Amino acid sequence: MAKLMRWTIQWQGSHVQVEFGDATTVPDPLDAESIKRSFPLTYGQPLVHFVSSLEKPPPNGVQDQQPPLRVADIKSELPNHSEIYYLGGYDMLGRTKDQITSKEQVNAALNACQTLDLNGLVVIGGVTSNTDAAQLAETFAEAKCLTKVIGVPVSFYGDLQNQFVEANVGFDTICKVNSQLISNICTDALSAEKYYYFIRLMGRSSSHVTLECSLQSHPNMVILGEEVASSKLTLHDITKRICNAVQSRAEKGKYHGVILLPEGLVESIPEVYALLQEIHVLLKNSVSTENISGQLSPWASALFESMPPFIKKQLLLSPESDQSAQLSQIETEKLLAQLVETEMEIRTKNGTYTGKKFNSICHFFGYQARGSVPSNFDCDYAYALGHGAYHLLAAGLNGYMATVTNLKNDVSRWRCGGAPLMAMMTIRRLLHGLGTPSIGKPSIHPVGVDLKGKSYGLLLQNAEKYLMDDLYSNPGPIQYKGPGSDSKTICLCVEDHDYMGRLKKLQSYLDKVKTSVKPGCSQEVLKAAVSAMAYVVEILSLMSPAGTGHAYHPLEDTSANM
Amino acid sequence: MAKLMRWTIQWQGSHVQVEFGDATTVPDPLDAESIKRSFPLTYGQPLVHFVSSLEKPPPNGVQDQQPPLRVADIKSELPNHSEIYYLGGYDMLGRTKDQITSKEQVNAALNACQTLDLNGLVVIGGVTSNTDAAQLAETFAEAKCLTKVIGVPVSFYGDLQNQFVEANVGFDTICKVNSQLISNICTDALSAEKYYYFIRLMGRSSSHVTLECSLQSHPNMVILGEEVASSKLTLHDITKRICNAVQSRAEKGKYHGVILLPEGLVESIPEVYALLQEIHVLLKNSVSTENISGQLSPWASALFESMPPFIKKQLLLSPESDQSAQLSQIETEKLLAQLVETEMEIRTKNGTYTGKKFNSICHFFGYQARGSVPSNFDCDYAYALGHGAYHLLAAGLNGYMATVTNLKNDVSRWRCGGAPLMAMMTIRRLLHGLGTPSIGKPSIHPVGVDLKGKSYGLLLQNAEKYLMDDLYSNPGPIQYKGPGSDSKTICLCVEDHDYMGRLKKLQSYLDKVKTSVKPGCSQEVLKAAVSAMAYVVEILSLMSPAGTGHAYHPLEDTSANM
């Protein structure tokens, strides 16, 4: 905190300089036209970087004199109140899962902002809230409303990730609190030597929390939703995999273990996902829960009827507003524990397993980590984003997300700025059964764990050791002073996020070519430059997705869809 | 830790002096003869205090030269290994719930200690383990075995309490971790504003953990087992009480809340306790679980059949080795949440409740706090007890518990010593139905929350405010450096434990009377002394339980029986 305080004073004591970068595009060129049509006024805005004007004299940027602003959402006033530095968002703001779904709601927001004569509206949240922020920004611009809309990336799930956003506020805290508890349970497992603990972690459709907690606490086994979807593992495959692990451990005399699952796992299992889809369609058609089983397709009905009663009841719950199942209510950990127990009994009966009886205890860590006192990292990050949001508004920008990059380095090296919300949007094209593909609205979509990323690679590399050798690690509780108080998530530290740094580097290379190959240079130099640049351009055109002719992303091709 | 290190160096750099106090008795004079008969060799030993010989020249005590000792149980070597300072007992020792139940087990221990030629055996645990330690000490003495047995008070439950033992190692950590999680849930409740969280906490038959966590985190409502037993509240009474609270809060527009329950609650509810007793007798007689309901008495069968299926299954589990129900497996929180929901629906139907629908989420915090990295207080306390155990063994003492008193003060003022295990024993006399009373074996019994104590008083005093005003408090995670790292449990700090200090004071008063009233003093002085002392003696005789003629403790009269 001391470091951040110095940094803050530096920011507050000087004038902040707003520098504009290049105009932005969207991640998938195929989506560009469509998104531009939906957001004509806010599409294609440039990137923004903040520079302290003590460090650099004002060039052609806008100089910010920190005028007083009227802003809705107290988060933006945070920087001036250090007594509330350690309050989490739940303490100050409360929470809601409501989504803006109708034109009336947008207009109500517009009227409120105009009536209150607000300079800015800061929207704090994850993918859904920031998609809403983008919609509000466009509508406000269209209505020539003076209120500018800025988004801030805050989500426990860690699933708001893109070139500009390296981490979400809250993710560090959630992972640390959960890792503390998982580690305690690992110690308990090793001490009691008689139980398998099945722990389900929050994360909605993505498994970031589960991956990070695994890297911090080294449980024996982890099953990520992204792995299951990518390998199309069935419930039976997963059960068998766990049973094989239990059996291998029993052969070494070990009858305990800790297994982590993400709450989104249930939707990643292909046959369960399909069953859920059928149930949701029937619920939408107002079929009563008692009659649903009879109206399912034969295979879905067979799967449904094979489930234990508690899971049946949970699968029949109405879906969330985003059409996903009520993941926090579906006790996948209990389902798997029960399936494993049954399978181990079968193996015992037919003599393939000769070890002791399998015993399990199930946990869902959904509520006890939320509302925690935030970690130093999350406080620092939220504080910096709050500042950024203020400066984006002061510069009169609309439809931006406040960003801080280079987060894995020391706070003094963090880079603050803003990125247009529209540059984070994609369009989902889903094949529903055999019908025509449906094209979704432009949205900021949740991003799942990258199975080619370094964090997942680290887990994979250690999986066998963690499974057999009980290398449990206990990071302990979150610390605010002394050793460990500056720690960051392992995922943030191992991944190579430096997108903004690379953008800068690319710009400097382009500049160098331009300055070293000016009219008057030798023919040889010019020829070399042209030939080398032709090579660069060819590589880029080969990499362009338009070149490969991919028009649709089937469900299993992109982790963002899970 | 810095403080303790200084204290340790002081201890290690000097010779520790062992001073003997008065011979001890047992808490209840009625038990004395019986306990003396069971423990003829170890009964009535004197209290022991340790004094640093740098502070005081050796008087008539035993001077300890710190000889090398052979001791079983690595905990006693702890003080010399600061790298393992922060490892909890689960890390180093593992755990077991097994109890010594047969003469064969005692003899096996005796043989092992003799074969290994041990100077000492340190037994680490709660009431059961220390009762076992007392039994081993007597048996070893009888067999003229050279191994001395020392107990150390370690228990999450905080139920090993008496004149000599102010706190149990582990209790501080468990309460801090649970309070952190409860507080997070309180914040979540207040933020979401739509759920009642029912949280069940560990503690076996006593509610110390629940009381301490309530004092730390201020949930809306707490139901202690000791209150329920003392007021003979039925399941219906408890449900009604919670419903009234829900209704009062709804009238203020509040539809959220946090309610804590101890796992022992289920055994404190009179009719459920009686039902469990009937079930356990039938299980003991090998009646299969399917047939139990039919063989219960009519009222017990009616109660049993009124329960939801999940609770029925859990009530039918075999009891623990100490005859108590498998408390960690019985989901009382779900039972109560369900009963409250049903009652609120009835109130809605008959129009007495007009608020929104009651929604609940249930939690059991049983496993995620155990195995935690211990708090500074627990490390310091365990460290000091480990030292004490060593010095008791070095002084050749047998059948003692290592003690540290004055714990609520600074570490530099802690007083180390030992108290005979037999001086902590009581005998339970229980009236089972209408038959003859059964007399138990002398044991160190768990002590419940003292409903006349200051800690409970503090809770009671704030109960109404906590219920209505959402004064949630978040102590945050355990800290090892900086603010809060020296904190101790509130129960320890508000209670007035200074038994050893008062014993000292009494001795000094007696000494003063003796020195100021010597032969040769005036008749007036002598008369005054005799008359004043007669008054003291009369008061003490009136207070003696033998004088009141109480021969049996009915179940509801003593919290130790719950």
UniProtKB/TrEMBL annotation, chains A, B:
Keyword Magnesium: yes
One MF annotation (Gene Ontology) recorded for this entry: diphosphate-fructose-6-phosphate 1-phosphotransferase activity
Cofactor(s) listed: Mg(2+)
A GO biological process held by the record: photosynthesis
A Pfam family matched in the record: PFK
Example of a GO cellular component annotation carried by this entry: cytosol
SUPFAM superfamilies: Phosphofructokinase
Domain of life: Eukaryota
Catalytic reaction list: beta-D-fructose 6-phosphate + diphosphate = beta-D-fructose 1,6-bisphosphate + phosphate + H(+)
Keyword list, A-Z: Cytoplasm, Glycolysis, Kinase, Magnesium, Metal-binding, Transferase
Domain Phosphofructokinase: 82-392
Keyword flag Transport: no
Protein name: Phosphofructokinase domain-containing protein
Organism: Ensete ventricosum (Abyssinian banana)
